[in-house]
Amino acid sequence: MNRFALSVSRGISRVTDSALGPYQTAVIRIGFSATWLLFLLREFPHRHELYGPDGPWSRDLAEQLITDNGAFTALMWWDGRFWFEAVYALSALACVLLLLGWRTRTMSVLFMAGVLSLQNRSIFMGDGGDNVLHLMSIYLVLTRCGQVWSLDARRAGRAREARARGERVVDRTGPALWGVLGLLLVTVTLAGRLDGDWFVPALLWAVWLGQAVWWVVGRLARSGEPRVLLDVVANIVHNGALFVIMAEACLIYATAGWYKIQGSRWQDGTAVYYPLHLDYFSPWPALADLLTASGTLVLLITYGTVAVQVAFPFTLFNRRIKNVLLAAMIIEHAVIAVVLGLPFFSLAMIAADAVFLPTTFLRRLGGWAERARDRLVPCRGGRAPVPAPRDGKDAEHARVGFSA
Amino acid sequence: MESQTAVTESQSGATESRGGVAAAREGVAAVRDGAVDPRTGVAALSPRYQIGAALALAVVAVAVCVHIGLTFLHVAPSNTLTKQHGAVMDEWIYPEFEQNWKLFAPNPLQQNISVQVRAEVSTADGGIRTTGWYDLSAQDGRAIDGNPLPSHTQQNELRRAWDFFVATHDSDNRPVGLRGALSETYLRRIAVLRLDRNDAAGPRGVVERVQYRSRTVNVPPPEWSGERVSDRPVYRVLPWWTVPAGETVGGAA
Question: Per the record, where are the segments of Basic and acidic residues compositional bias (chain A) (predicted)?
Fold first, then answer.
């Protein structure tokens, strides 16, 4: 009983005292924002046809469907070409800033608003990749995903150094950003543009008010306790959201795997042959023919795919097997990107997979990226402080999928 | 109550004797602040604030469990629970958490469905001309061939619009509900857009009506399988639809 209580208490302090998986959340932040950014850039010439007011899925059609399902989309707030172009451009801008980790929480909200606005405007244009981004953009809002590899982390480091020197650090950008976005939020709420489904508007208001409380408490609270409590609450929400992100990735694989098991083509070992011979998913027919020339090879890939997808959630309890399967899935998605012509779906899935990568690997990756950057841009002043390594015990835990 | 006291006590115990939790906390604090800040975490709070933290933990824990549970039921096959509580589930899942991960499952599609369209065009001299069939899917396929970054307009637009039509119509092509009507308008607008790109109306001609058909043909089974399937195409022909006067062509024309 004592040991049980002890482990419960350790568990509680784990999920309340820190925002777990700082590198994992940073890498998915970068992954998802980069995927959506590249998608927006690639579709720039087609943006009107996909999401514009005069596209085949016209504003009128979208309005009828959205009145029916209540989905969130800022594109319907105002009519006209200018607003559409503005939303598209702002969505891309939010991607860049989220990727860099500038005002990460605010940018994650704008990133979500951009993704949902465009996707919900024309739901029949999307595929599985869009679906992954849609969900993850919502979950990302609830995480503290800018703890490392971000401009925010660098700014926090500099502010700390300045305070150590006894200087006063005043942030004007944050309150200004908060004020502008608050004005927009109040305007659209009063104008009745958020009268659809309650969830996303509630999330927007919660984050906006939460930031106000955070700022006020940080400035005014006499004792440190309210600030610590807010920090604890933010950690709890972060850890909950991180767990949901991992569970979501597991659900994706489990669903994809368990439904495949029921299919006769996955049973007879020919399934992989067929998508490779669909006109819509065969950009390189010669390559597809080469891959499917051997029945044995197709059988192995077919069975292997099902086995990996079904097994993955269970392997999270064993670090080594989990990492092997993770590598296999990332490679498979890279192949799918090329062979089935689904680059953005694959990028989104690889970004989701990345949440399970071990901390040691991610830190090494960060080191390489930093060296590459220094080689490209030599003699930079004011380098970002490299976060101190966590002690061995904790790092070991972090490598196990679920507790990371 | 007993266990709660145990939690509080053992927490300080763990901090002192084992050092693991404290070390972990220090590690993370170091990540965040660059220096060890002892005043973080629940342990730094007075009981009054600890209740607040416990409340937050309980709320988040319940929310996480409920969300994952409902998402699981949403992606699971129809079962006892989903039949009993379908309305509650849908209330939470739709519209923002809707998802479908039956990727090429239970079976991958084994047919190539070509969506084709033709038009009735009123010509400049006052006559009416019917165009030949334009194979829009084949045009998409050609745009995808050798393309490392296929656009959603090529890979998803027509394909999913057709799926949407099939899902919202009965076998006699009669629309079912609001979505059926929406899907017809959508397909008609795609037709106008694509016909315009093909310059189907010709100089000063106007597209008056459009007609869709689909041509479904089995993917030939792999040579090594020894299987045989029919290679005869199956057609589904939709009625003619009148294009309303002044229906603008898609923005990207």
Answer: 390-404
